[in-house]
Design brief:
Elements (H helix, E strand, L loop, with lengths): L6 H4 L3 H4 L2 E2 L2 H5 L16 E3 L4 H13 L6 E4 L15 E4 L10 E4 L4 E5 L4 H9 L3 E3 L10 H5 L8 H4 L6 E8 L4 E4 L5 H7 L7 E12 L3 E9 L2 H12 L10 E5 L14 H7 L4 E6 L3 H4 L9 E7 H5 L1 H13 L11 E6 L3 H12 L6 E9 L16 E9 L6 H18 L4 E2 L7 H23 L15
Parallel strand pairs: 2-4, 3-4
Antiparallel strand pairs: 1-2, 5-6, 6-10, 7-10, 8-9, 8-10, 11-13, 11-14, 12-13, 12-16, 15-17, 15-18, 16-17
Amino acid sequence: MAAGTSSWLDNIAPEIASKLHSDGVAVARFATDYGGIISAAPPAAVLRPSSPEDIAALIRCANRADSPFSVAARGNGHSTHGQAFAPGGVAIDMAELRGGGQRIRVSAEESYVDAGGEQLWMDVLEETLRHGMSMRSWVDYLYLTVGGTLSNAGIGGMVFQHGPMVSSVLELDVITGKGEMITCSPELHSDLFNGVLGGLGQLGIITRARISLRPTPAKVRWLRLFYTDFDSLTSDQEFLISLRDTVGFDYVEGQVLLNHQQVDDPNFFSIEEAERINQLTAEFNAIKSIEGLLQQLSFVPGFAFSKDVSHLEFLNRVYTEEEHRKSSMAVDPSKIRHPWLNLFVPKSRIRDFQTGAEGILQNINPTGVVLLYPMNRNRWNENMTVVVPDEDVFYSVEFLWTSTEQDWKNLEAGNNEILGFCHRQGVQAKQYLAHYTSRTDWMEHFGEVKWKRFMQLKQTYDPKALLSPEQHIFTK
């Protein structure tokens, strides 16, 4: 460690001290995140662990310190509002655990994969595909870590059928805020298991997840249908997710094109197809076309496009599209900002929400995508910490903006205006990847029952409130 660091760092346990780095270059990277719009003081040091035991030892040191310091785990740095910051504390560089081997093990016989919390979903997918297996549900972006995703939920177009990614977890290894290393499951330490899944890093750090698998096809049919009428789009989406237990689509996801936007996906559409599509205003995605089923849908006649791709190509489509979008911006990647807003909106208010959001965004002309697709509430485990609206069907609405340093404030203002609209109009939306700065807002987010349970779990597993301080949920 560099000279002149804070006294608690000078008194850290010898076995950990050699793995702490406090020079300016080391800590600077942990004071910025993927969103690029929140700034905070850097951590006093960064831990580069060789094993999960190093993380546990660090947290035990934090608990024993005269002035306990905060600790936050950082996976691949894709938080958007500083959720993984640890100002003046210690940030854990989880990526260092990938250096000791991939820590991914597939059991095809028992249909599960064990993956370290630091692993990227892309690496997990490639390893499971080597065994002809894949997970039941997937996030849209594969360059996120296992631990970071499961600390939120993990959503994508398969949620209506298999639930979020947390629904497929069989077992976890967790390091609690007291430095305990605990293996938990629905049967063993179930309170910790359910609390950590969707628990925003407040109860423990996930170092291993056992996730169920299923056989996967070598090829999938990716079908894109186009709509110009919002009600027809949402009606068809709701119809398709109602078929989850019969013959239907495996993946349902919608993407909205704002008035100023055009289709720009050379990996899927030909130039001629793109020119036709760019006369329309909304897009709908699905795979596994069934001719009889298509006849029951209300997309624009003649605007159904399909492509046979590998399972990997389909699941990695968002990364491919994002890289194309960034290259077309001709901006230094370090200057790109991501003022994202992710909401769960009740089905009963989705039309009101669409009208309000459209009016707010019409003068902003944002760059990025808006995803829109329904989910079934009964595919979510109420015992887990993650929060969803109290309706049988609700929509995931994701405003995934890509902006420059100069423009992001307009987009962030638009996001806040959308939240204000929901509050004024009584749209009981819930934030996914939530960020609030007051305990009152967090209490409202969780609701009375879940908040009380969460408080009790925090007192049990992180009583000194050391973990993930920049979520602003608990204070020391």
